[in-house]
Amino acid sequence: MSIVVRDVREHELDSVLALNNAAGPAILPLDAARLRYFFDRAEYFRVAERDGSLAGFLIGMGSASDHDSSNFRWFCERYPNFFYIDRIVVASRRRGGGVGRAFYADAQSYAELRYPQMACEVFLEGTNDPVLLFHGSFGFREVGQHVMPEADMRAAMLMKQLCSHAWVHETYGDALPKLPWVLQPRVASAPLAQRPTGTCS
């Protein structure tokens, strides 16, 4: 069956929470309040469906957000404009079946119209070589490492250049065509012209 990627619905938050907290040590745990924070603030919060059931989710923030993650702030201190993947979770029974690649393709399609780079991190505790390999095969490169003070965990900080962004920005500026597949942010955010170009908000 095909994979369907779409915006999360409020009634699915309990299922998303359970999925996150069953993901293992590679993903920081959440509580209901923290998940609501993401639901209310995240620019990109989408789920994947396969065979009619929830197969995973991805949460992303633009660099103009006031996200409080120390990893996000690390990128903010070094890069002026980027799309940040806070977390991606794929249900254990669906791993290796293309759900992660479907998410990244969808997130990139969204981000490259608006941002020159995508950022994320991979925890280096334990055996995360498969996760690093996945990101490397998708074009991410390590640009540094950071120890999260809130979790005392070291992460590889990864960045991917979005080659199409320059052409889109030069051709359309801040007025993207009104096409159904050109998704608008889930939550109100600053227009492109008002996004900070030196530091995050």
TrEMBL record:
Coiled coil (residue ranges): none
Domain of life: Bacteria
Protein name: GNAT family N-acetyltransferase
UniProt cross-references to InterPro entries, sorted A to Z: Acyl_CoA_acyltransferase, GNAT_dom, UCP028520
Domain N-acetyltransferase: 3-164
